[in-house]
């Protein structure tokens, strides 16, 4: 199962003792959807919809959005595609949506926060997603980026329900969302950890700034502990909690994430085979032991070294 000896991916993954892990792809446009399907991905854990909006002076029409989303959904033959609503703001400002001149744009009006002043833009996007899902008979789950509170969650879930999008979830990208996951997941059907932003906001270190790169790693025990807390919040309600940040694509970290309670990993398609191979070499109990040893370290470097050394011992 999982990876073959030629390093290709057959669409399934499991630990050595047969515990299934959903391995799916991140895609950002129709071309990436083609690449993901060719790499063997049977579904999408993060469809970033920004491509449809960026570089435009005005909002795309519902019809334009439907066409763009259908081009991605069509590649997955009715299988699950997790569509993320527009994550504008911060480094991706949009003239018709995000405020000018924010002093700290990464802490400003981005992601779901744009829906406070512009609920109509979210509403039209949800309408387009629902129409595209129906036209392609796709299993579409919808999730909101940059969620921090239970109120944002329940309002998003209600907005989705108005379009018959019944599987609505949230990204966990802020420490607040991770800490409050048990409340967010009372309403949300699932959660997906955006570890790129979760690391940025936990470490207070710009994810694109070379000068703070040493801080910006998901191996930071503070980040791993928030992953653990978020997964516990999912367990309370029996909800799946995945990872769709870069962390999911690291073959050494993937077993740790599974050991922390993560149920799906979504990544760039070329990483699928390597992560499936890494998971097939460890049992779930070993994943849990790796997670415990990483959490018990004071530094990112020590956490990574402990996992690397333990993995050698398992062979
Ligand atoms: C993340 O923050 O980890 C994530 C998956 O979202 P993006 O990289 O698009 O911000
Ligand atoms: Mg993010």
Automatic annotation (TrEMBL):
It is an enzyme of class 2 (transferase). It catalyses: L-histidyl-[protein] + phosphoenolpyruvate = N(pros)-phospho-L-histidyl-[protein] + pyruvate. Its cofactor is Mg(2+). Keywords: Cytoplasm, Kinase, Magnesium, Metal-binding, Phosphotransferase system, Sugar transport, Transferase, Transport. One of its GO terms (molecular function) is phosphoenolpyruvate-protein phosphotransferase activity. It is found in: Cytoplasm. Its main location: cytoplasm. The keyword Metal-binding applies. General (non sugar-specific) component of the phosphoenolpyruvate-dependent sugar phosphotransferase system (sugar PTS). This major carbohydrate active-transport system catalyzes the phosphorylation of incoming sugar substrates concomitantly with their translocation across the cell membrane. Enzyme I transfers the phosphoryl group from phosphoenolpyruvate (PEP) to the phosphoryl carrier protein (HPr). Belongs to the PEP-utilizing enzyme family. This is Phosphoenolpyruvate-protein phosphotransferase. It comes from Myceligenerans indicum.
């Amino acid at each position: 199962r999982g990876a073959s000896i030629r390093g290709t991916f057959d669409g399934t993954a499991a630990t050595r003792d047969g515990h299934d892990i959903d391995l799916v792809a991140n895609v950002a446009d129709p071309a990436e959807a083609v690449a993901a399907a060719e790499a063997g991905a049977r579904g999408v854990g993060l469809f970033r919809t920004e491509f449809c909006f960026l570089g435009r002076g005005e909002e795309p029409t519902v019809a334009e959005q439907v066409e763009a989303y259908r081009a991605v959904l069509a590649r997955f033959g009715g299988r699950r595609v997790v569509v993320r609503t527009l994550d504008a703001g911060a480094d991706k400002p949009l003239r018709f949506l995000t405020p000018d001149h924010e002093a700290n744009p990464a802490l400003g009006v981005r992601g779901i926060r744009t829906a406070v002043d512009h609920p109509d833009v979210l509403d039209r996007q949800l309408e387009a997603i629902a129409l595209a899902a129906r036209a392609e008979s796709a299993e579409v789950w919808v999730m909101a980026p940059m969620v921090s509170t239970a109120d944002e969650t329940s309002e998003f879930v209600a907005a989705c329900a108005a379009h018959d999008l019944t599987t609505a979830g949230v990204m966990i990208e802020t420490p607040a969302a991770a800490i409050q996951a048990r409340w967010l997941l009372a309403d949300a059907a699932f959660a997906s950890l955006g570890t790129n932003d979760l690391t940025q906001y936990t470490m207070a270190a710009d994810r694109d700034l070379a000068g703070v790169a040493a801080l910006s790693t998901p191996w930071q025990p503070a980040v791993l502990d928030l992953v653990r807390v978020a997964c516990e919040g999912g367990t309370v309600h029996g909800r799946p909690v995945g990872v769709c940040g870069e962390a999911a694509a690291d073959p050494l970290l993937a077993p740790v994430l599974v050991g922390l309670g993560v149920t799906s990993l979504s990544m760039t398609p070329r990483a699928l085979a390597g992560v499936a191979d890494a998971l097939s070499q460890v049992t779930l109990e070993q994943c849990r032991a790796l997670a415990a040893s990483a959490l018990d370290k004071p530094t990112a470097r020590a956490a990574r070294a402990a996992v690397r050394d333990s993995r050698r011992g398992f062979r």
